[in-house]
Amino acid sequence: MTDVTDTTAPPVTDPHVSHGHDGAAVQRQIVDIVASRTLYDESYLLPDSHFEAELGIDSVIHESILALVRERFALAAPLPAGLATIGELTAAVRAALPGPRPEPNGPPAPAAHDDDPLVEAVLRAAMHHTQYRRDQLALDADFEGELGVDSVVLVSIVADCARELGLPDNLAGTLTAPTLRDLISALRDHISATAAGEQRPADEGTPWDSRSMKDFVEERDGDLFAKTRSFRSHLRGREAERLYWYGMPLHSRCGSRAVILDEHTGRKREFLMFASNNYLGVANHPKVIEAVCDATRTFGATHTGSRFIGGTNMLHKELERRLAAFKGRPACIVFPGGYAANLGTISALVKSYDTLVVDKLNHMSIVDGARLAGSARKIYQHNDMADLERILKRCDDRGTGKLIVADGVFSMHGDICDLPEIVRLGRDYGARVMIDDAHATGVLGERGSGTAEHFGLKGEVDLELGTMSKSLAGMGGFVVGEEEVVEYLRYYASSYVFAANIPAGVAAGLIASLDVIEAEPERLVRLWSNIRFLHRQLADAGFDLENTESAILPLVIGDERRALEMGRAVRARGLFCQTVVFPGVPLGDARLRVSVTCEHTREDLETAAGVFVEAARETGVLPSAG
């Protein structure tokens, strides 16, 4: 998340050092840059550390380091070739600076805090987990809006600080703060309270294991696998109580009902299915299945290659043509998966000197795409357009590229992004816009083509991304946009270039799915009739459905224990939906996620509403009938 706003400060000068530059100060700034591009702790970055052999820095990262060094020290001439260590790079920079350093364009770098171990520990941890340099970490910068530090990254920062300062390991799961300064203050208060002998109130003796999956993220041990043993013990406890019921295998097709094997008990049972993303019900359509089988017989099981090396089939070309037409855009590129589409597209277009601006509740594939890109990441509060504009204003004078990315439909909340305002702000501040239509394709718009159609903004969104494992009933991901952008992605998106392609049979099935969706628009009409009916039933019963406007109906509960217990009570009544806890949602925001399809009958929906109400009353989510 490297920010290239020029906040460069001149290195400390020393008249006793040749060329008038303090070698230690130059080396420290270079170490900061290397740390920001590699995520290494500074303690690993020694003068004789070999970039490739010891640090694993390839030619691409090495060149980006050199570019940042040239920018940092305002070097006009290129650095010599063959600089293999940090020491050699430091010497080359000092040699290139024969006179006093030019005045920097930005504010001076913050002073070192060597006299305050707490501040230094926080800064080192923040540098390590964010890719920012020391001079870019303003103590009062907002973690999310200015530094792009989300709750997961903050846990890692706190864990590092706790380890270095000798504080309890579980501090990482409990301590939060909006800025570095607030984090320093909170840690100082914790240290003071511990020194004064203050004790936290003890638990009330309940046998409930209050840990969540968040507690195992930063467990430290000399044995890398120690955390897996700790988590296994926690997992087995949850499974024994039938609270974690993830990954149970289907033994039938997945329609409005499905037979699932409960691996904890060894028993199969038919469930009323409300956990499927098969929104338009085409996954089991005879024409789709027939197309998959016919193409597999003709072209074989797979191609065993990427699109560039023997992996392109005529069906892939046709699928891209059809998806572009369905979305109403000039060109399309197909990836092996939706996750791969986000990773590849973001990392290919956004570089370390650019800025990625994302909604706080975006899908994890967008978060990981930002990490892979290594760019500055700014997080705006969910669907808060005033906050988005505030962030765009702050980075408007940088003169580098900006990309706003948002989910069209937010996968755990069901609400829709404010696309008209996002497009307007993108235009006003010179930012490109990409919308992830994973849960909008096949659901939103008159034809089901997604968020842009829903808002009447076709052609005004720069890139539309989608997955084919939901409404389109296949596998893979895709991006549609202008031809030159799609062509660029074919050569620079690593998750496309270096990954095997989807099989021809899958491509044929997807083409057939598009045929069915376009030929049978009544499926979309039926889906929305079902959505409205069940939404009304659940809202009238008193459930919190947030602001959903899609086929995803969240039953917001908050407390993780109560959500897990309600999920168990729902399954006991023969209905299956997703129980979502951390990391699917933040702690304190647990929920049941209900997915509606066009295949559900009115009887299915009425039965489901009754099951949810009974289970909620049993577990205290809703008050009892009395």
Task: Quickly describe the structure.
With 626 residues, the chain is of the alpha/beta class.
Low-confidence stretches: 1-20, 101-114, 199-206
Fraction of helical residues: 40-55%
Widest sheet: strand order? 3-9-8-7-6-4-5
Number of strands: 13
Percent strand equals 5-15%
Classify the secondary structure makeup into a structural class. Answer: alpha/beta
Shape: globular
Task: Summarize model confidence as the mean pLDDT.
Answer: 86
Terminal CA distance reads 54 Å
**Number of H/I helices:** 20
Structure overview:
The protein contains 20 helices and 13 strands. The chain has helices spanning 23-38, 59-72, 86-95, 117-130, 151-165, 180-195, 226-240, 286-299, 314-327, 338-349, 364-373, 385-394, 419-428, 451-454, 483-492, 494-497, 504-519, 522-541, 560-572, 602-619; strands at residues 257-262, 267-273, 331-335, 355-359, 376-380, 402-407, 432-436, 463-467, 477-481, 552-558, 575-576, 578-580, 590-595. It is globular. Helices cover 41% and strands 11% of the residues. It is of the alpha/beta class and 626 residues long. The strands form three sheets. Strands 3-9-8-7-6-4-5 form a seven-stranded mixed β-sheet, with helices on both faces.
